[in-house]
Write a structure and sequence with these properties.
The structure holds 2 protein chains of 2 kinds. By secondary structure, chain A is of the alpha/beta class. Helices cover about 35% and strands about 25% of the residues of chain A. Chain A has a 6-stranded mixed sheet with strand order 6-7-8-3-9-10. A 4-stranded antiparallel sheet of chain A has the order 2-1-4-5, covered by helices on one side. Chain A is globular, with a radius of gyration of 17 Å. Chain B is an alpha+beta fold. Chain B folds into 2 domains: about 200 residues, no CATH class; about 190 residues, no CATH class. Helices cover about 55% and strands about 15% of the residues of chain B. Chain B has a 6-stranded mixed β-barrel with strand order 2-3-8-5-7-6, surrounded by 4 helices. In chain B, a hairpin with a 2-residue loop joins strand 2 and strand 3. In chain B, helix 1 crosses helix 15, helix 2 packs across helix 15 and helix 2 packs antiparallel against helix 16. The chains are: A alpha/beta, B alpha+beta. At the A-B interface, helix 2 and helix 3 of A face helix 1, helix 14, helix 15 and helix 17 of B.
Chain lengths: ~230, ~425
């Protein structure tokens, strides 16, 4: 637990429409390798906005962001896409699976895009990831044939396909019932403990957050507890 | 590898919306089909109409026009050289309409590498005698073989064999209109009176129909020797030399050259028939304009469908971007979709266009004025297919470009946070 994976230095962000508002106020923190961190806070406190900055998808911010020791400032769009592909795994509140593809193909897509392995190897890896999540038997089904909990597990498998540096979650349990939320939480915990996977999860489920390694609490664009 | 992934994703998007895709492709197919059929038909019709005149017209016609001499004796006189000489009431000299020294001219022309072939001709004014009435007419003395080779004479001989002109002495192929007036059947012997008053009997061996009524009422054909006999002229008597060139575009220049060289009058086909070229050009222009309009309309169809597809696929685009596909990849995916529609629809359109042309080619088109035409004319020019193919791809590329660019610019944060 020594390597800094993600390092945010004095990150600020403004919303300009309709009036200029500073929504993130000079936030600095870092995530270590293998840490399971949760960000909590009330609605509108800027936690999701922060997550999208950290994920490199939102590029209009002030301050510095380092991923794996590299600055993400002033990089071109295709460069950032590559970073997301290789180093970041995403799990959203809504599963965002592509209905045109089978579960297996959904999991494989980021892997095929990275092209580090051959198609066959990517397929094998996708099976392995599905197995970790206990849904390998659904591999050839299509997303609309799965339940909400299963879909979210497929989304987690997809986030794992390229062995990312960090998994980022935006309310990954927000749409799930209690039972499925617990399943998802246990998967995250297992990934952190057994595979030394770093996780950064935004949630407003306090119960969920209590069980993580570290809680970052935000209010009004600032970190009030770390 | 990367290309394979992009085509893979494109194909899945296409198949997921196969009905829309099909409608878009049918739009392209329809427009290409119509484009090909329209142009083939128009070009066929153009060729037919041009052929009506151009096939039977010499590229260069050499003749000797009867006209007053430009130089009067007084103009040649040394004494009156510095003066303005006024000579009133000049008349043409009594000379033959024949070309002088035809043998030498024909030899020279035959040796010229730019000349495809020549056909000599004699024009003789005659009267056809029907009982007490005389009908005016023209007998063209021709070399049946050369005339057929270069001017498709046999196409216009609707009954009888054109070679009989050569094989049967004192024979005539009558214009259909003239023959009807005279009630002359094939095998009948008719009587003609020449301008000089001689009466000669000729055997009708066929009918000739050009499609132009005025010509069919007056013109008839006989062999050169028969016509020379008719006029009481000797062997070398020729009034016209028709020259067919290898390259029709050289006609105006060569006409001037021959006119100087042989000291005869020469007319080139461009000067004589300028209106036909203009007509063809305008017709071709109109058919291209209609064809391209059809394609542009199909392009808008593709544009609409791609736009709709992009709205539907916002989430998918957002997630592709979130998981590491760049804007360029998304742009390529949608361009691939557009181009697949274009290529598939275009290819099918080319095939159907060929089929439709073939069907038009089979539709009977019988008209009394065009004896050689039995079905609608179609020109199977490969250039139309090449143009159609290129245009289908170009239009779909254009139609796909802007929606694709829009897709590539979608901000995943806005889509994902909007939920």
């Amino acid at each position: 637990m020594k390597d800094k994976i993600l390092d945010a230095l004095k990150i600020s962000k403004y919303f300009h429409d309709p009036a200029t508002v500073k929504v993130i106020k000079e936030i600095s923190f870092s995530v270590m390798k293998g840490e399971f961190v949760s960000i909590i806070g009330k609605s509108g406190c800027g936690k999701s906005t922060l997550l999208y900055i950290l994920s490199t998808m939102d590029t209009s911010y002030e301050g510095e962001l380092f991923l794996d020791g590299q600055s993400m400032k002033n990089r071109i769009e295709s460069d950032l896409a590559k970073v997301r592909n290789e180093k970041i795994g995403f799990v959203f509140q809504f599963h965002y699976l592509l209905n045109e593809f089978s579960v297996l193909k959904n999991v494989m897509l980021p892997g095929l895009k990275l092209a580090k392995f051959t198609d066959k190897e990517v397929e094998q890896r996708a099976y392995d990831k599905l197995k970790i999540l206990g849904i390998q038997s659904e591999a050839l089904k299509y997303p609309n044939q799965l339940s909400g909990g299963e879909k979210q597990r497929v989304a987690i498998a997809r986030s794992l396909i390229n062995d990312p540096l960090i998994i980022m979650g935006d309310e990954p349990t927000g749409n799930l019932d209690k039972k499925n939320s617990e399943v998802v939480f246990h998967i995250f915990q297992e990934l952190a403990q057994e595979f030394n996977q770093s996780l950064l999860i935004v949630t407003h489920d306090n119960e969920f957050a209590q069980k993580t390694n570290r809680i970052i609490e935000m209010e009004d664009g600032r970190i009030i507890r770390m | 590898m990367k290309l394979k992934l992009i085509t893979d994703v494109s194909r899945s998007f296409l198949i997921a919306r196969w009905k829309q895709t099909l409608v878009a492709a049918i739009g392209v197919t329809f427009s290409i089909t119509m484009f090909i059929a329209l142009l083939s038909f128009m070009a066929g019709l153009n060729d037919l109409l041009d052929g009506l005149i151009l096939n039977r017209t010499a590229h260069i016609r050499l003749y000797n026009e009867i006209k007053p001499s430009k130089l009067q004796p007084v103009d040649l006189s040394e004494i009156y050289k510095g003066y303005y000489n006024f000579v009133n009431s000049i008349k043409p000299k009594n000379e033959k309409a024949a070309i002088y020294n035809t043998g030498a001219i024909i030899n020279t022309l035959n040796k010229d590498s730019r000349v495809l072939g020549i056909a000599p001709k004699i024009t003789a004014q005659v009267f056809f005698n029907v009982g007490a009435i005389d009908l005016t007419g023209v007998i063209n003395g021709i070399d049946a073989e050369a005339e057929n080779l270069f001017f498709k004479f046999s196409d216009y001989v609707i009954s009888g064999n054109y070679m009989d002109l050569k094989n049967i002495p004192n024979s005539i192929i009558m214009g259909k209109g003239a023959a009807e007036k005279m009630l002359a059947n094939i095998g009948d012997v008719i009587q003609v009176t020449t301008a000089r008053g001689d009466r000669i009997q000729l055997k009708v061996v066929g009918y000739f129909q050009s499609g132009i009524r005025d010509i069919d009422n007056i013109q008839s054909y006989a062999s050169i020797s028969t016509t020379q006999k008719l006029l009481g002229e000797s062997d070398g008597y020729i009034t016209d030399i028709q020259v067919k060139l290898k390259d029709i575009l050289l006609a105006p220049a060569l006409a001037k050259q021959y006119s100087r060289l042989f000291d005869v009058d020469a007319t080139d086909i461009q000067t004589a028939n300028a209106q036909y070229e203009t007509g063809s050009f305008v017709r071709t222009l109109i058919s291209y304009a209609v064809g391209i309009t059809l394609l542009i309309v199909a392009g808008f169809g593709i544009y609409n469908i791609l736009n709709m597809m992009i709205y539907e696929k916002m989430d998918s685009i957002a997630i592709l971007k979130a998981t590491g596909f760049s804007g360029k990849d998304v742009h390529r995916i949608f361009l691939t979709i557009a181009l697949s529609i274009g290529i598939f629809g275009g290819l099918l359109g080319l095939l159907l266009g060929f089929g439709l042309s073939a069907i038009i080619d089979q539709i009977p088109f019988v008209t009394a004025s065009l004896p050689t035409i039995k079905t609608y004319p179609v020109d199977y020019n490969p250039a139309f297919y090449v143009i159609g193919g290129i245009f289908s791809i170009a239009t779909t590329y254009m139609a796909g470009f802007f929606p694709s660019r829009k897709a590539s610019k979608i901000d995943p944060v806005i889509i994902i946070r909007g939920k």
